[in-house]
Amino acid sequence: MGTTLLTNAGGLFIQGEHLNQALRGQDISSNCTLLDPSFVLIKDGLIKDYGAIGHAPDRADEIIDLHGKFILPGFVDSHTHTVFAGSREKEMVARSLGKSYQEIAQEGGGILNSAAKLRNMSEDELYDAAVIRIQRILAKGTTTLEIKSGYGLSYEAELKMLRVIKRLKENLPINIYASLLAAHALPKEFADNRAAYISMITDRLIPEVAYQGLADFVDVFCEKIAFSAAETEQILEAGQRHGLVGKIHSNQFTSIGGIEAAIKHRALSVDHLEHLPQHDIDLLGQSDLVATLLPQAAFFLSDPMPPARKLIDAGATIALATDFNPGSSPGYSMPFIMTLACAKMGLTPIEALAAMTINAAASLNQAGQFGSITRGKRADLIITKSMPSLAYMAYAFSEEHIDQVYAAGERIH
Ligand code: NIG
Ligand code: FE
């Protein structure tokens, strides 16, 4: 592979030299800026150099004139449920008619509905459907995608989902990370025996998943309608013993101790956070956990937006992700997440973009590898269409902003 020079960029999103960790609280505003006019030099799949146009090299094997388009780090969508059996728009209509997400779940709809459908699908069918989704996802600028299991809800079906994710990892050009989310909902067969389901996860599934290398992380839906803080701790603890770091769903509807459990078991992130009392905000301000906010789930279920501004003021590390799934968040556009972050959570476009890139990479333990335009990092880059400013990307939310996408220096869109 030779060198590729992307030159005459109208804006280049930079987040500070040698950046290899998340940006906490106000550090985003003090470190991130847009440089113009500028260049990026790619060599062997990595960012070799970048800077103001005056410092651009004279020659490269390939030179691409961007005529003022922007260069941004590829989006890191650190929380999705991209492998699923089918859509659930009937539940949206049921909510329009007055049912809540929790009521639908308790009546056996929701996640259990997805699980019932998934058990009847073959690995090939699940794989083919996910490939089509991921092709659309990468066209929106996402170069790293976390995907959870959690619609299997049995030993066999959870392994089946993770094998599908493994195939996606092997065959698609973007970075894919897998999380074991067997503790997503209690399956009906275990309604009278919660402990048996938990021990199936801790004693059989986690060891097997770790042995086969099928997941990078372990997840739990810590919520009144799902699993308690004590159960969450059991699962995080088993994950720790087998090298699966925790990333949990917490505080979507209630605050029941998920954040404390995550801190105690050295998890990487707590995700959702629509219902976050002050003591939880303070905990996040003091811990190394990444607070991953999922504003599209709050939007789609008409729940309160996560308190992004208060988290930044408390010094917490915030990330943003789509939570793409067929129940609570059926969309995969990271640019739309930027719109929600700016219009509904009081973030600036720069704060939103840092939360969707470097901080999201930190929530996958990969801030040293990608998530910012830094020398030596993987050349995962977005070239935007021509636009007047970064804010325009959040503002003009019906327009298509992504012109080209590079993953590890290769053009994939
Ligand atoms: O992150 N909250 C739990 N899990 C998903 C929703 C899954 C579903 O409804 O299928 C979420 O919102
Ligand atoms: Fe989720």
Short description:
The protein is built from 16 helices and 18 strands. With about 425 residues, it is α/β, with parallel strands linked by helices.
SSE arrangement:
Layout: E1 3-9, E2 11-14, H1 27-31, E3 33-35, E4 38-43, E5 46-52, E6 62-65, E7 70-73, E8 75-77, H2 89-96, H3 101-106, H4 110-119, H5 123-139, E9 142-148, H6 155-171, E10 175-183, H7 194-212, E11 217-222, H8 229-241, E12 245-250, H9 258-264, E13 269-272, H10 278-286, E14 290-293, H11 295-300, H12 308-313, E15 317-320, H13 334-345, H14 349-355, H15 358-362, E16 381-384, H16 390-395, E17 402-407, E18 410-411
Parallel strand pairs: 1-6, 2-7, 8-9, 9-10, 10-11, 11-12, 12-13, 13-14, 14-15
Antiparallel strand pairs: 1-4, 2-3, 4-5, 7-16, 16-17, 17-18
Features of this protein?
single chain; 413 residues; alpha/beta; Urease, subunit C, domain 1; TIM Barrel; 2 domains; 8-stranded parallel sheet; 6-stranded mixed sheet; 16 helices; binds N-(iminomethyl)-L-glutamic acid; binds fe (iii) ion
**How many structural domains can be distinguished in the coordinates?**
2
Number of strands: 18
Q: Counting H and I runs of at least 4 residues, what is the number of helices?
A: 16
Q: How much helix, percentage-wise, in residues?
A: 25-40%
Enumerate the strands of the largest sheet in spatial order, edge to edge or round the barrel: 8-9-10-11-12-13-14-15
Report the CATH C-level class of the largest domain: Alpha Beta
Strand content: 15-25%
Q: Return the structural class.
A: alpha/beta
Q: Which molecules other than protein and nucleic acid are bound? A: N-(iminomethyl)-L-glutamic acid, fe (iii) ion
Instruction: Tell me the span between the first and last alpha carbons.
Output: 19 Å
pLDDT average, as an integer?
97
CATH topology descriptor of the largest domain: TIM Barrel
Please compute the radius of gyration using only Cα atoms: 21 Å
CATH superfamily of the largest domain: Metal-dependent hydrolases
Low-confidence stretches: none
Judging from the principal axes of the Cα atoms, what is the shape? globular
Q: What characterizes the major β-sheet?
A: 8 strands, parallel
The CATH architecture category of the largest domain equals Alpha-Beta Barrel
